[in-house]
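Sequence, please.
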């Protein structure tokens, strides 16, 4: 039951902060948007670094993409992955 003369309870409830991480200014991103941003960052890293400095994740990303198949980038990924996994 609500008291008609109670004016402080509403102020307390409004002043309480929400728990958790604060929301982004432009709103929350969907999982698809986060994954697309991850793919863009990975492609940027691949183009900006030398193939001899790629990580295993970057090599696997190149090898899983059909656009780099039979290209020098794809060949560099095979060589670097072999070195990282001590195949040669």
């Amino acid at each position: 039951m609500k008291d008609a003369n109670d004016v402080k309870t509403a102020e307390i409830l409004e002043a309480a902060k929400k728990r958790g991480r604060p929301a982004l200014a432009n709103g929350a991103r969907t999982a698809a948007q986060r994954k697309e941003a991850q793919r863009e960052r990975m492609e940027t890293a691949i183009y900006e670094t030398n193939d001899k400095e790629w990580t295993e994740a970057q090599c696997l990303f190149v090898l899983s993409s059909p656009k780099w198949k039979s290209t020098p980038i794809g060949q560099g990924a095979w060589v670097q992955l072999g070195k990282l996994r001590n195949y040669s």
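The radius of gyration is 25 Å.
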